[in-house]
Every structure is written in C-alpha cells, then in structure tokens.
Design goal:
By secondary structure, the chain is of the alpha/beta class. It has a single domain, classed as 2,3-Dihydroxybiphenyl 1,2-Dioxygenase, domain 1. Helix content is about 20%, strand content about 35%. The protein has 2 helices and 8 strands; from the N terminus they run E-H-E-E-E-E-H-E-E-E. The two termini are about 30 Å apart. About 20% of the residues are buried.
Length: about 130
C-alpha cells in the first residue's frame, strides 16, 4: 500500500448554524475561497485544505473560553502570515478565546498561538513556530 504524502491536504466536515454568517466569516474575514455548495453545505478552501460546513443548527456545539475542551482545528503559519492574520482578526473585532501570544519563550518549541471561533462557535487554532521549526 502506498503511503499518502505527509503534506497532503485534509478535508474537515462540521456543522454550522447559518450560511450567511458562515460565508461572511470564512470568505470575508479569513479570505477563504468558496468552493461547491448546495442547500445543505458549502465548501471553503482553508490554507490549501477543504472545509465542508453543513447547515445543522441543532448539531452545533459552540465553544467558550471556559469550555475549551480540545475540539478544534487549525493550521500552522509562517510568522509573518500569523501576524497578518492576527491583525486582520483584530480589525474585524473577532473575539479571541486565546489572544495572540508567545508560549514557551526562549525554550525549544517556542511558538505563537491564537484561538478564536467562527460564528457558530467552532474553535480555530492558529500556531506559528520560528524559522528553526
């Protein structure tokens, strides 16, 4: 059996409460190109990966600062892209679950990190490591 390349894009499917808010966030705020859509789902291209958002308000499980329980997705960006996205999110007045911060400063594994949620409460974590990573 052939191994799939480690850098192969992923596909993630999850529920959202509203198409209009979802499109405004993923396209308008994050800059994700929209792909195929139907009456029940819409695809977005998220840093080379595919997100499929299914409209099912009754299945949405929103996150909160107090309830950050490990259910999230995200990407690892170059430092400049991380800073650019953080500024864009701040300008759009997106509330952070974890504001952009540096963790483990001066140690192996030093990283920048931020966590925010889409309008349905799906948590998104963005990380950035220095050039050595």
């Amino acid at each position: 059996m052939d191994m799939i390349a480690e850098s192969a894009p992923f596909h993630l499917s999850f529920c959202v409460a509203d198409f209009a808010q979802t499109r405004a966030f993923y396209v308008g705020v994050l800059g994700c190109p929209e792909g195929h859509s139907t009456l029940t789902y819409v695809d977005f291209f998220f840093y080379g990966n595919q997100l499929t958002c299914h409209v099912a308000p009754e299945r949405v499980r929103p996150v909160s600062k107090a309830g950050l329980d490990g259910n999230h997705f995200g990407v690892i960006l170059a430092p400049q892209a991380f800073d650019s996205l953080a500024a864009k999110l701040q300008a759009a007045e997106i509330s952070f679950l974890v504001a952009p911060e540096t963790q483990h400063a001066g140690e192996p594994g030093e990283r920048r990190k931020m966590i925010f949620a889409d309008p349905s409460g799906n948590a998104i974590e963005i990380k950035s490591y220095g050039a050595a990573h």
